[in-house]
Amino acid sequence: KAGVTQTPRYLIKTRGQQVTLSCSPISGHRSVSWYQQTPGQGLQFLFEYFSETQRNKGNFPGRFSGRQFSNSRSEMNVSTLELGDSALYLCASSLAKGNTIYFGEGSWLTVV
Amino acid sequence: GQQLNQSPQSMFIQEGEDVSMNCTSSSIFNTWLWYKQDPGEGPVLLIALYKAGELTSNGRLTAQFGITRKDSFLNISASIPSDVGIYFCAGLPIKAAGNKLTFGGGTRVLVKP
Lengths: 112, 113
Known about the structure:
The complex is a heterodimer of chains A (112) and B (113). Chain A is built from no helices and eleven strands. Chain A has strands spanning 5-7, 10-13, 19-24, 31-38, 42-50, 53-57, 64-68, 74-78, 87-94, 102-103, 107-111.
């Protein structure tokens, strides 16, 4: 059974650009969450999608957005990139609320 | 936002030693999860706990869901070099909407020089 798959694994962007990251959850999982991990702030929740609806949102500016497709795959987008957006972006999937949550390997974003 | 207090922040291990770490909170949690993260990788689930008082093992790892529902412990027995990494606790608060995990700050496990 394939795990959570994130693409791309590594990318470098310039300030002001936008970026889209993709996540394919474990087959059958309908909940997809996104987290940002930085050395200074640790793991911070961005948002969660369930059945194509945003169920939760963290305390991030509106430049961070996401969506979920009917096949449960999810994308997150960051517009007008800032240097501080450099981080490891992690996607996690779960069957439903309260079930075990599995993480992907993450997408390393560097903003220069 | 809500935080989990994870301690110790770092520890040195010698092969064969038992080590332990814990997470505490002022809030009540429904679920406790323990992850290990290696450099450049995503967190890998080690143990999941769903009931207060639950004690669960996964090989040399043992974790417990505190009876107050405000804490959890992870023990590693007979440590080996590949136990090096960062261990995170994470929890789902009792009033969480959906799967919004709260994470501890991590325990960095290093090998004694």
